[in-house]
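Incident log, structure service

09:12 report received: a user says their structure output differs between two submissions of the same chain.
09:20 pulled the input from the user's history:
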Amino acid sequence: MQNAEDTFWFGIFPIICYVGSALLLSYIAGRKNRSKWGWGLIGGLALVPALIILLILPRLDPQAQAATGASDSSQQPTTQPTCPACRATISPDASECPNCGKGIF
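09:34 re-ran on a clean worker, output below:
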């Protein structure tokens, strides 16, 4: 039968290390305008190589981030407005959405 110390070192401690390294890598990635989720997952699996790679990579500027398609999905393009109900692209002077018919204010 396992005692409490074995349960900690072989059960709980690896989980704490995984979560801690994932949080560390996602924080560093966020500071460099890179994907927090992707680097967090990589950091949980292989902390040391991922940490070295992330520290070597340069910071992404917002224009490069948008050009590579790595922009945050919650950001909307500034050139074309979208309908708040169905997210369809609409003309700037439209009073209602041609797709769903909702009024736009």
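09:41 both user submissions now match this output. Likely a transient worker issue. Closing.
09:42 reviewer note: Residues 8-67 form one domain. The chain has a mean pLDDT of 77.
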